[in-house]
Amino acid sequence: VGVHQDDCFDFKLIEYYRELQTTHKNKKGGSEAFCDPHRTPGYSSSCTCTHPLLPVRHVPSTPQFYVKWDKAHQRNVHLASAVKENLDVLLLGDSITEHWMGTSLAVARQKYAGIHKQYQELIEGRPGLALGIAGDRCPQLLWRLGHGELPNNGGATPDSSLSPRVVWLLIGTNDLDEGCRRQVVMIGVVNLVLQLLNQTSSAVVVNGILPRPADASGTMEGSDDIQW
Q1: Which CATH class is domain 5-206?
Q2: Where does the record place the SGNH hydrolase-type esterase domain (predicted)?
Q3: Which of 127, 101, 131, 126 is nearest to 116 (CA)?
Q4: Considering the entire predicted model, what is its pTM?
Q5: What is the sign, positive or negative, of the torsion defined by CA atoms of 137, 142, 54, 148?
Q6: Over the chain, what HEC string results?
């Protein structure tokens, strides 16, 4: 999930997870508690990291973005509710996942048309489904899982017969770009896996977080590049 190997076996990480569970129950902990004090800014100049165990509907943004985000979410809910047979694979994530649909925030983009064509050939016929929303982080995806973006009604009325055979999870790049501590992102991803295992009978695959350049041009030569 994009963290150093030592973190995976660090008992301090387990202690931190337990601490976060406590702050979750007590609803404590501001955004600064989850921010990396030594972060290298990517696209964003400020840290807006939130509690990784608490579902959040929207990323902090403008009202116009909320409208677009809601449209994308409702599109995903419609697609999930239309599933009447077992999926071979369900892709969940952020913009990287949404681009399989040829869209960004539910708006078709010509530059993603080729990706959508590959999706139709490789995923839809399996059958498979991609449910992503551009800009999302772990807390947003956590909210989505509880609000209709699973073929089994998001766990509200679980129906394991409609669980995908495999759920492929790719999330976390936006969390890191917004300044979250690596441990916070890792815990957010692990928590999503636990939720998926609890709400479905699916096998869950976690895709490693892909390198992301600080320069929007896509080059990976600057010292500010985020390579996890």
Answers
A1: alpha beta
A2: 91-213
A3: 101
A4: 0.84
A5: positive
A6: CCCCHHHHCCHHHHHHHHHHHHHHHHCCCCHHHHECCCCCCCCCCCCCCCCCCCCCCCCCCCHHHHHHHHHHHHHHHHHHHCCCCCCCEEEEECHHHHHHHCEECCEECHHHHHHHHHHHHHHHCCCEEEEECCCCCHHHHHHHHCCCCCCCHHHCCCCHHHCCCEEEEECCHHHHHCCECHHHHHHHHHHHHHHHHHHCCCEEEECCCCCECCCCCCCCCCCCCECC
Beta pairing partners, 212: 226
Question: pLDDT digit string (tens) for 163-216?
Answer: 899 999 999 999 988 888 888 999 999 999 999 999 888 999 999 998 776 655
CA distance 161 to 84: 10
| pLDDT tens-place string over residues 113-158 | 999 999 999 998 889 999 999 999 999 999 999 999 998 654 445 5
Whole-number Å distance between alpha carbons of 95 and 105: 8
